[in-house]
Amino acid sequence: MKNKLLFLSLMVILMTSCASPKKFVYLQDMKVGEKEAFNFKHEAIVHRDDRLSITVTCKSPELALPFNNQQGFVSVAADGQVESRSVTKEVGYRVDIDGNIVFPILGKIQLEGLTVSQASELIRNKIIEGNYINDPQVSIEFLNFKYSVLGAANAGVYSVEGDRVTLLEALAKAGDTKMNARVDQVLVIREVGNERVVYSHDLRSKEFFNSPAFYLQQNDVIYVVPKYRRTDTESRILQYISVFVSIATAASAVLWYTTR
User: Fold this and answer.
1) Which residues pair with 54 in a beta bridge?
2) CA–CA distance, 184 with 24 (Å, rounded to integer)
3) Which residues, listed in sequence order, are joined to residue 83 by a DSSP beta bridge?
4) pLDDT tens digits, one per residue of 25-60
5) Nearest Cα to 93, choosing from 48, 41, 156, 44?
6) What mean pLDDT is reported for the chain?
């Protein structure tokens, strides 16, 4: 009887040590049907080296032409209708190292640190204040929104259309985290002004939804901390030895119990 209890205890210990830990499951504390508020008004912020597409429109197309990065012409039909034709250059406006762009007619404009809507409103107000157009509409889009992924994931630089991408979407585009990932230590490195800020996330908890880095910004770097370095051969060998010893011990226990 004692031998049987010893054998069962040994097998429980071995099975427990080899089982996959629960910590690899995402969002463990989120219940089915539970509602979570989210920031549906999130907007990307303009940074240095961003490349922006800026389009100005109004009721009179000929008035907006000088403000657009376009080549084209305006023609007047026999009935007096004004028609404009243009070919847009996709180079956009690059935000320089000081956070400025050089915009037609208006000259240098500081945009760094503004959201897309704030930047649009700023340009719109400058056009109105200069008495160029009474009712302009200004739209801005990112032409080079990208982020980087490193660590225990498919490393690379990824580009997205638009400017609204979440941390989960970014990891999904990178093929999810790998088997050796520390899902409780997913870092987002972000440049804020002249500083770098690191945000740490635990993907097992829904609390990371509230992180300032849940919605990515331009040029964010995602680093998925690995349990061991991919190039650390010694660590891998130790893991293989541990698995082999566990299997050998279990086999020995079975043989010992059957012979007894």
Assistant:
1) 140
2) 9
3) 75
4) 776 766 777 776 666 677 889 998 899 999 999 998
5) 48
6) 80
Cβ-based neighbours of 177, under 8 Å, separated by 6 or more: 152, 153, 171, 183, 186, 203, 224
Q: How far is CA 8 from CA 12, 20, 251, 253, 257, in A?
A: 6, 20, 13, 10, 10
Q: What pLDDT, on the 0 to 100 scale, is given for residue 38?
A: 65
Lateral strand order in the sheet of 146-151: 156-159, 146-151, 221-226, 181-192, 195-201
Task: Fill in the DSSP letter of residue 196.
Answer: E
pLDDT band at 81 (very low <50, low <70, confident <90, very high): low
Instruction: From residue 257, give the alpha-carbon distance in Å to each of 173, 229, 253.
Output: 50, 39, 6
Residues 6+ positions from 120 with CB-CB distance below 8 Å: 138, 139, 140
With CA atoms as reference, report the closest residue to 114 among 169, 48, 175, 36: 48
Q: Which residue in this structure is represented by tokens 């939804």?
A: 209
Residue type, 176: D
Give CA–CA dist 246/29, Å, rounded: 32
